[in-house]
Fold:
Amino acid sequence: EADGYRNCANIILNHIPQDRNILVVVSAMGERNSRKLKKYKANLDLGVFRAPTAADAEEEEVLEKVTSCLIKAHSLAAKRDTTYLEVVAELKARHVAIVDELLDFDGKCTPDQKVLNVALRADLKAQLESDFQDLGFILRAVWLGRDFDVEHWAHGYGEIWSARLMTGFINYVAINELNEKNVTRATFLDAREVITTLKGAINTPDMKVSETNMKEWLSNRPKQREIVVATGYVASDYTGKPVTLGRDGSDYSASIFAALVQAESCTIWTDVDGVYSAHPGLVDKAADQTQPMLSYSEASELAYFGAKVIHPKTMTPVVVHDIPIWLRNSFNSSAPGTCIQSLARIDKSVEKPSDCVQGFSCIEHLALICVEGTGMVGVPGMALRLFAALKEAGTSVVLISQAGSEHSICLAVPEAHSDTCVSAVQREFRDELERQEIQSVSTKSNCACLAVVGDGMKSTIGVAGRTFSALSDSGINVIAIAQGSSERNISVIIPQASCSAALQAVHAAFVEDPDAAIVSPSVSRKSGCSDLPPLTLQSPARSPLRRKQQLQRLIQQYQEELNKIGDPDVEEKKQ
Structure:
């Protein structure tokens, strides 16, 4: 785990222009899988912290995410289970051990450096000790009151500890001159002092108040260049109480800070090379190449529909200032990554993508709720009442589909909330159900939502046709369909068991078949504009595999017809 901090320091110190002020946002330590990176052997003369490779992996025990451990400790304390103390003790030992490993200076420094190193390590351990003491008080209060409502006080400590460790290590590198560059000292920033959320919306920042806080914080800093290491995930509400921005919210924190300081760019270093056209674990060929660039809207759509590479809200703060977001791989810094930016920037780029569809994603574990009845036709306010009932149930709607006749409305919701949602809808329309104005409120479980995303889909002929042809050719039933007026997303509800097959089918239809490109390289993605004549309504070329499957079905149909007809020669002889 100390190697993770070294790798991050390598990125901060060696992969970022040194003439810039740098604001670094860190998350809590993640889980350690069955592989552990071997210890770095830093070259003290050159100060090179190389990126890890596959050869650096060895078997090791699994360590749980720090945030997950904090949530676990909080839950145990609320149940008056004393094992929460063991969870906290393990977390403390884990972080203190990393301090000793990161700031290991015995015999490697001058006397003057040793004095500074001793003070740095003692100060860092004192900060951790104070944090764990505060956490102990919070969890003791939870124990006494059996109260889980103060979760935001405890769950963000992982980011605080991580930022303290990163700040301490960068300063250790500067003190001991372990890098060939003139390393600037780092400063710790607690995001709870800057990011303030809106009243009644603890996951949404009040950008005006936060910007004022940021300016005030910066006004107290020296004018010379420095590295600021800030905590991700955490913030404060309008009263000053600690809140969190949702799980995996450090990406969101980074984009908020980028907007507050109006940064040139925001780079999110993760564990993949960029955004793939589909989940590589479900579509093998999706791993062949990452998307070089996406628009803010495309990235938001893909993130919302299950792409885990970026937090769904990350794009929101930077759009106003047109700040590009880069997604890079912290374990493969040579990979170019994916740039998420405005359509205006993309259209000016000589490397703009030519494909109208940029990605495919899928949300699983959904249920489809269908409200049907002749009494809904032409009656104002029915949809309002339906969504009000779902709001009272505390459920977010993933997809909406309504027939033009207004006879039915279908809603996709998380499967875990389906029973609660059905009960809420039945209560709201109790009178209509009794009078048979609404015939049924039904639910269909084990569903998934497949999304086909791309700004170039707008005004482009044949995208929907190819999507449904690909699903049909693979024998996948479409249960419900929705497309927004922006035309950048076609969403379909399918059986969950067909999710992987559906992703492979549409990916093959749009990406893997070289003869199937709907948009040529000279077509601009802006509003579907093109220098070419309009495309003709021809059936899209099919891949050899899909053509073979189609022919096999035709052969089977003709064989069945022949079996029904029988042998004409035999029939004539009988006559």
Remarks:
- The longest strand covers residues 359-372.
- The mean pLDDT is 81.
- The longest helix spans residues 111-145.
- DSSP finds 18 helices and 19 strands in the chain.
